[in-house]
Task: structure prediction
Amino acid sequence: MKINVIIRFYEELNDYLKPGGQKQDIYIDIEKGICVGNLIESLGPPCSSVDLVLVNGQPVDFDSLLQNNDRVSVYPVFEMFDIKSVSILENSPLRQLKFICDDHLGRLAKYLRIFGFDTLYENDYDDNIMIQFSNTHNRILLTRDKKLLLDKKITRRYLVKQTDPVQQVREVLEFFDLKNYIMPMSRCLKCNGLVHPVLKETVKHRVDNNIFQISNAFSECTGCGKLYWKGSHYDSMMKWIQEMMD
Ligand SMILES: [Zn+2]
Result:
């Protein structure tokens, strides 16, 4: 016996759907006795990417059986909203946003570090390493590789649409609603380590004497020891950061 249901996918779950079903109600006939999880995966999105399913406005789990005329709303693993109170599924929303960029997004990784976001990147990461880092450390995998995006082993990922790195960082800041969490110059651009202030006297023999004379504020990376100071590029970089925050 067939029943009719209406299903709609939200946000990046649409990336899994065939053209024509994206960002709209999908009317579908299914056999009676099909559960929510089976219906979702039959249309493309893996359940591991789903955080919340509402049927007729009520949260349900993946084993819930569908009834005639049910309206199903499917939401992704949320990185930007706290829906813990309403979700009853297993994947808990992320509390802390951390990223890993694929091997084509090196400049995006550097820009995210400039804004203070914890972002792993090495140009020799292979797909398996990126998936492992993403899953083990709850890092959102940022990629432009649709094949990687569709790998069902990944639970936290985002398809970067823009091709220009400056536009990419703007896209990521806006999508994940990060503008209130920007901490400029708090991370090392080279290794992603945290940067903290150090006394000027302690770096006297580690920098060029000219730099030592004209600079008063120095910081050091806790990861690789790289020193930072407010050089000529500092003001222009802060101006750019301010523009992105507005
Ligand atoms: Zn470093």
